[in-house]
Each structure stands twice: as structure tokens, then as C-alpha cells.
Specification:
This protein is mainly α. About 45% of the residues lie in helices and about 5% in strands. It has two domains: about 300 residues, Alpha Horseshoe (Serine Threonine Protein Phosphatase 5, Tetratricopeptide repeat), CATH 1.25.40.390; about 130 residues, no CATH class. The radius of gyration is 26 Å and the shape is globular. The relative contact order is 0.13.
């Protein structure tokens, strides 16, 4: 008999013995206790805080680089692109967000038990941030009855869905409480290294909480303008909000094995990185305004088309280096990057016979039928490079990249300035719209290392201040690069920038929300019914019914945005 069989037989005999003697019940209880586990009643908040902060920031950045970046047309993908390009958001699971909230609830409970205002305020701030994303993306959701699964009641096991309005009201109330707590909280009990955002600095956290208040006041500004106006004016008057780039709420990516940038390039298997392509909508905006951030975010095409009307065929089946013909039509991706950096590759085509985009920076138009073949790609395939379309800049492919640029940005000073610019256009008492608009641009340029180009950039047609909401929202959209979830919320609320989807989209409009996940239908079907009833069908809801990506949640009901 081998050792595995002996162990199995021994365990079986032990189980039989326990079943035969009632005194074994206690022993079974003991066996189910992890001797190395940490009692939740004794856990140190310093040990809980980093898991909450890291998971929240990384989840937000992942949305901002992936599906939300596709929705607001910062990028498109040339492989595995359904959710990114075409709003295939059926049965979207929010488990990850609620997992963060469970850890955060434990952080809050421990903070209360220890009478620690700092940890209470941090927990309330993060609760608001996470629930804000849930409400923004899905609409109604479990809120007041959520996070009570350890309580023996029907309500806790099958929590009701609160309205989106109730969630936003709760977020604002919690943030107001957090701001008050941060005003008097000490940080003696805080391990600075475990506070991944502000190193235990209460002033930084207070600015963060107040800046989130600005975000959510503006979010409800069409539905509750009086509340939004009073709230934003009060925060502005306090001066206690994120005012410069050094105060941004960010998570650094250290480059460690479990802490590397989302679009990392894995050597010998670069498929994931190669899927990210610029979107032509974004390229048009950046190119037409000579935006200095363009080369920071995107790489020029590896091989640029060159028009030649004398060419006897539609296009050459080889590429050129500084005009000299080569015996290949393409090189492997890593060869372009590593062996031939800076080389000037071209490929000729006859514009009378075929139409190609021959610009230095080229994007994929949104929702293409076959994006991997666009613009004459000689090696089409899901996840392969397209030498005639711009990918992310090389900085985003490093497997261990860290530094000032690759951060998860939860909210920035640029966003705050654009919020104030919009508020000023509404006539609210927050200073001048022009000043805030230009400050938003400068702060974004500073983040991406292009502040020296500010003076020239703001004189460009389309960038020089014209006093329109559309212009403010367009520059806010540009500045939301890698934080596209906020741009998506702004688009749905204002209709700006004006986004037009493409042929592969199931509907001729950009989608509005995630569908609820199968877990809710299977395990909480009675509670979800009210949430579905509160959704508003639109002309584009399609065969999904109310739980459609094109149905309107409370925030957009009764408004013409974003399509009309």
C-alpha cells in the first residue's frame, strides 16, 4: 500500500470513529479551525489597508485601460475585442468590487473597535470610491443590505438592490463624514508604508475625499442641481482639495512580479500587448491639435504607407528601409522594437487603386468588423501586430515598468480643475472657467512630462479657450487617459465628446451600462426584479430587455444625453 492510500485509509477510519462517538463533535470543530488564521477581531488595520488600496486602484486602472478605454475610444483592440470595441458587457460580474468592500468593511469595524478616526475615514473614503464605480457602471445595486453575509437573516443573504440615487446620496454622506474625521484624526497608529496612497498623511486623504465629493456632486448635477451647486461651492471655498499633481491619488506600480503594469509585454509572447491599438477617434483629436502627449501614449506606425500613383499594383508586397526594398513584408514585433529602433520603414501603395491611411500615427476606427486586418495589415490575426496601425508607446510594454508615468490614477488635480471649469460655466461660484480649464490642461501635461509645451499648445485652434462645455469635456476626456471610467461617466452625462460607434456594434450608439451578472439572477432573483423595473428602455435596448447595455439608469433618465 502506497503512502497516499495509507493516509486516505487513516482519515476514513478517523471519520468512522467520530461518527460513532458523540464526543468527537468537538474534535471536528477543532479540525475546521485554521491554527494559522488571523482572528478578524484582532487584525491590525495596517495589515488590511494595503489590500484594499491596491485592489481598488488596480481594478480602476484595469477598467481605464481596457473596456472603458474602448468605450470612450481611447483605444481599440485587434484581438479578443468584444468587450473592448463592441460593448459585449453581458453578465458582467461585480464580485471583485464586493470582495474589496468586504475587506474594507472589516477595516472599518476594526477602526471603530479601536476608536481610530484615521482608519474609519480611510474606510469610508474607499467605500465611497468602490460603490461609486458600481453605481456608475451597473446602476442600482445592493448597498444598505450589502456586506452582511455573516448575519443570519434573509435580508443579509439576499440583499435588496438600492436605487442608484440612494447609493450616490450615501456616497456623498460617507465622504462628508470622512472629511470631518480627517480634520481631527491623528496618524500615530498608522504604518506609513502600508498607506499606499499618502503614507499616512491625513491632509492628503482629506483632499482626496473632498475631490471625490466634487466628482460625485458633478455626477448628480443634472438630477439634483441645487445639491451639486452647494456642495461644489463649499468644497471650492474650503480650498481643501487636490490642487497639484503631487497631491493626486495614485498607486505606484513597483515592477515586482505581482505589481506590473497592465499592458506588460511578456517576452516571447507579446500577444496581449499587441492587442492594444490606438483608436482613430483619439488619434484625430490629438493630431488635429498637435497634442504633445501623443508620442507619450502611442507609437508611430512601424511601417508607414507611402503613396505612389505610378505603382502598377495596389500595394507592394515588401517593405522598405529608408527607401531601399527589403525581401520581407514585415518583421516580428520584437525585431521592430529591439533590432531596428529608429529605422524608417515604408511600404508603397497606389491611392488610385486602394485607400490606406498613410499618416505617421494611425488608429483603428471604432467597432470594426475585422479590426485585425485594418489598413492593409500583412499579418492579420487576433493578438498579432499590425505594422500599419499605432500601438501603445514602448514605455507601456515593459514587463517591469515603474516610475512617474505608470501609475493607477484614482483622481487627479487635472480632473478637479475641469470639474471647476464646468461648474463655472454653469454660473456657480468657483472662480473663472477659463482659468480652471487651462489649469486642467497644464496639470495633465505635467503628469505626462510635457509641461514645457504648455504655452504653445494652448494657442492651437480648438485648444485655446472658447467657453463651451464641449471644449472643456473634450480636454477632460483627453486628460483621462488610463482613467477612462471617469470619461465614460462624463460622456453619458453630457454627450461629450461626440462619439460615433462602428459597424460591429450591436446598436448604432455607444452603450451606457454593464448588464447584471448571472450570479444575481441565479442567487438573488427576487431582489434584482426591482432594479430591472427601475431601468428605462430606450430605442436601442434591443432584445436584452431592460437589463440592456443601452437602457438608462436613474442618473440619465429624463435627460437627453448622451445621444440626442
Amino acid at each position: 500500500m502506497d503512502i497516499t492510500s495509507k493516509i486516505y485509509k487513516g482519515l476514513l477510519m478517523a471519520l468512522i470513529c467520530c461518527l460513532g462517538f458523540t464526543g468527537c463533535d468537538d474534535k471536528l470543530d477543532e479540525m475546521n479551525v485554521n491554527p494559522y488564521g488571523i482572528d478578524p477581531a484582532e487584525v491590525n488595520p495596517n495589515l488590511l489597508m494595503p489590500s484594499v488600496l491596491a485592489a481598488a486602484a488596480q481594478s480602476y486602472a484595469n477598467l481605464g485601460v481596457n473596456d472603458m478605454a474602448g468605450a470612450v475610444q481611447h483605444t481599440q483592440k485587434n484581438g479578443w475585442y468584444g468587450g473592448h470595441n463592441n460593448y459585449s458587457w453581458e453578465s458582467m460580474n461585480w464580485t471583485g468590487w464586493y470582495n474589496i468592500l468586504r475587506d474594507n468593511e472589516l477595516l472599518y469595524n476594526r477602526a471603530v473597535e479601536l476608536d481610530n478616526d484615521f482608519f474609519q475615514a480611510v474606510s469610508l473614503t474607499m467605500k465611497s470610491f468602490v460603490f461609486g464605480n458600481i453605481a456608475d457602471l451597473w446602476g442600482d445595486a445592493p448597498y444598505t443590505d450589502a456586506l452582511k453575509g455573516d448575519q443570519a437573516s434573509v435580508k443579509s443573504q439576499f440583499p435588496k438592490f438600492d436605487s442608484q440615487e440612494v447609493i450616490y446620496d450615501g456616497i456623498i454622506a460617507d465622504l462628508q463624514t470622512a472629511v470631518s474625521l480627517f480634520g481631527t484624526a491623528g496618524n500615530d497608529a498608522v504604518t506609513p508604508a502600508n498607506d499606499l496612497y499618502y503614507g499616512g498623511n491625513t491632509a492628503g486623504w482629506k483632499r482626496f475625499a473632498n475631490s471625490l465629493l466634487l466628482r460625485y456632486y458633478m455626477r448628480i448635477s443634472e438630477k439634483k442641481p441645487d445639491v451639486a451647486k452647494a456642495g461644489i461651492e463649499a468644497v471650492y471655498a474650503s480650498g481643501d482639495y487636490i490642487q497639484n499633481v503631487s497631491q493626486d491619488a495614485v498607486l505606484d506600480y513597483t515592477g515586482g512580479a505581482s505589481d506590473i503594469w497592465i499592458t506588460r509585454h511578456i517576452p516571447l509572447n507579446p500577444d496581449d500587448f499587441q492587442r492594444y491599438q490606438a483608436c482613430q477617434t483619439f488619434i484625430d483629436q490629438l493630431s488635429e491639435t498637435n497634442d504633445p502627449r501623443l508620442p507619450v501614449w502611442f507609437a508611430p506606425v512601424r511601417v508607414r504607407w507611402e503613396a505612389d500613383e505610378s505603382l502598377a499594383v495596389a500595394s507592394e508586397d515588401f517593405i522598405r528601409n529608408d527607401g531601399e526594398p527589403l525581401g520581407v513584408v514585415t518583421y516580428p514585433f520584437d525585431d521592430f522594437v529591439n533590432q531596428y529602433p529608429g529605422e524608417h520603414f515604408t511600404r508603397k501603395y497606389n491611392p488610385n487603386l486602394i485607400a490606406y491611411n498613410d499618416a505617421e500615427y494611425v488608429g483603428l476606427p471604432p467597432s470594426l468588423m475585422v479590426p485585425e486586418s485594418y489598413n492593409g495589415n500583412p499579418s492579420p490575426g487576433q493578438g498579432t501586430q499590425n505594422q500599419h496601425v499605432s500601438q501603445l508607446a514602448d514605455i507601456y510594454q515593459s514587463a517591469g515598468a515603474a516610475g512617474d508615468i505608470l501609475k493607477a490614477r484614482l483622481i487627479s488635480s487635472a480632473e478637479v480643475s475641469f470639474i471647476f471649469a464646468e461648474a463655472a460655466l454653469k454660473g456657480w461660484n468657483v472662480g473663472g472657467a477659463e482659468q480652471h480649464y487651462y489649469e486642467g490642461i497644464l496639470k495633465s501635461l505635467t503628469v505626462w512630462g510635457k509641461s514645457d509645451d504648455y504655452e504653445g499648445f494652448i494657442t492651437v485652434d480648438g485648444v485655446a479657450f472658447e467657453g463651451s462645455l464641449e471644449q472643456v469635456m473634450e480636454q477632460k476626456w483627453v486628460a483621462s487617459w488610463t482613467a477612462a471610467t471617469e470619461a465614460f461617466a462624463d460622456y453619458r452625462r453630457t454627450g461629450y465628446p461626440q462619439l460615433v460607434t462602428g459597424p460591429q456594434s450591436p446598436q448604432p450608439r455607444v452603450a451606457l451600462r454593464f448588464q447584471y451578472g448571472d450570479d444575481e439572477y441565479n442567487n438573488n432573483s427576487e431582489s434584482i426584479t426591482g432594479a430591472l423595473d427601475r431601468l428605462e428602455l430606450t430605442d436601442y435596448s434591443g432584445s436584452f430587455g431592460k437589463d440592456s447595455q443601452w437602457s438608462k439608469s436613474w442618473l440619465y433618465q429624463g435627460t437627453s444625453a448622451p445621444w440626442d
